[in-house]
Amino acid sequence: MSKIIAVMANSVEDIEYSFPAQALKDAGHSVTLVGAQANEKLTGKHGTEFTTDKGIDDINFDDYDALLIPGGFSPDNLRSDDRFVKLAKKFLLTDKPVFSICHGPQLLIQTGLVKGRTLTSYETVQTDLYYAGGIVKDEPVVIDRHLITSRTPDDLEAFNEAIVNELA
Known about the structure:
The chain has helices spanning 14-26, 74-78, 82-93, 105-111, 123-131, 156-167; strands at 3-7, 30-35, 41-43, 49-51, 54-55, 66-69, 98-101, 118-119, 135-136, 141-144, 147-150. By secondary structure, the protein is an alpha/beta fold. The protein has a single domain, classed as Class I glutamine amidotransferase (GATase) domain (Rossmann fold). Helix 1 (14-26) runs parallel beside helix 6. The longest helix is centred in the N-terminal third of the chain and has 13 residues, at 14-26.
């Protein structure tokens, strides 16, 4: 089965990590939570505590099949760290699956690779995607090759179905 990297910083939208990660695990995939450091304690917007499995410097890109970027304020924190930007860029350039929900596409914008891609996000990020050259749709799930994006926690059921199907 597939190995997925989930990237996270503090103030993630708790359910946008936990619900997709559980759906992926239930489908037989493994999810590695990656932060700035291994064994880092992170707190979600709603108080859930998460502990990273690995630090960004501890991973080997070739060992992973897909990237999960949950939303909340986490992607805004991650995009100021060039290591996470480079990781997202590498996934996009190699056309490996990228799953991004809510504010998650903020990290993708930072790669400079959204121009011409069709995607969605939380409504306040949609304008940023547009100005970065993205083709923005206001739909629960948007699939552009192996890039799957979604808008909000309300869309998680459809998002989870799409990402599990992508790896099937």
